[in-house]
């Protein structure tokens, strides 16, 4: 599903337009109020992951969901997060353990509403960012605070990820 963000007529809202399957409806417009900014999922039928394709239209990271980022949008979203803890799931499409962790990562995003959850497909397009962040294996979870990596969890280690998030939040 391809997503694109655009400004709505109301300055306090953003709209999410989708090219989605027939069950959701093509070019369906959904407004998402969230503390005066737009964030959220496309619909109840669609995934709760929000893909951000342009750093020019980023209002705020989605709360209660996972935001998919790329090499162009990652750092602007981290900047927007400010002092919040940011958790980045670095995965690939072909990785079995990554697929196992994806729904559990989504659950964490719904539990920790004060944490920003991002995911990055470590494909050729995003190779430069993956290299910059020092990825060696997938899945790798980077925990950032104040725009710096403070913790890393490699592999499908859910309990270690929860502990790393709790530790970063308490510091």
Please provide a written account of the structure.
With about 170 residues, this protein is α/β, with parallel strands linked by helices. Helices cover about 25% and strands about 30% of the residues. The chain has four helices and eleven strands, in the order βββββββαβαβαββα. The chain has a six-stranded mixed beta sheet, with helices on both faces. The longest helix is centred in the middle third of the chain and has 16 residues, at about 95-110. The chain is globular, with a radius of gyration of 16 Å. The model is unreliable at about 1-45 (pLDDT under 50).
Order of helices and strands: EEEEEEEHEHEHEEH
Distance between the termini: 37 Å
Percent of residues in beta strands?
25-35%
Number of strands: 11
List the total number of helices.
4
The biggest beta sheet reads: 6 strands, mixed
Structural class: alpha/beta
Q: In oligomeric terms, what are we looking at?
A: single chain
Over the alpha carbons, how many angstroms does the gyration radius reach?
16 Å
**How do the strands line up in the largest sheet?**
6-7-9-8-10-11
Helix content: 25-40%
Mean pLDDT across every amino acid position: 77
Low-confidence stretches: 1-47
Mass-distribution shape: globular
């Amino acid at each position: 599903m391809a997503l694109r963000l655009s400004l709505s007529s109301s300055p306090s809202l953003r709209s999410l337009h989708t090219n989605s399957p027939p069950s959701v409806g093509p070019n369906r417009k959904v407004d998402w109020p969230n503390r005066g900014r737009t964030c959220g999922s496309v619909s109840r039928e669609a995934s709760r992951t929000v893909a951000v394709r342009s750093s020019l239209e980023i209002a705020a990271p989605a709360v209660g969901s996972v935001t998919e980022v790329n090499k162009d949008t990652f750092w602007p979203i981290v900047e927007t997060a400010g002092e919040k803890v940011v958790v980045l799931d670095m995965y690939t499409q072909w990785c079995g353990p990554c697929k196992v962790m994806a729904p559990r990562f989504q659950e964490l995003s719904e539990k920790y509403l004060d944490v920003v959850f991002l995911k990055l497909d470590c494909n050729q397009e995003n190779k430069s960012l993956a290299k910059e962040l020092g990825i060696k294996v997938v899945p790798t979870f980077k925990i950032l605070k104040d725009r710096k990596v403070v913790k890393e969890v490699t592999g499908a280690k859910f309990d270690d990820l929860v502990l790393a998030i709790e530790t970063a939040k308490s510091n």
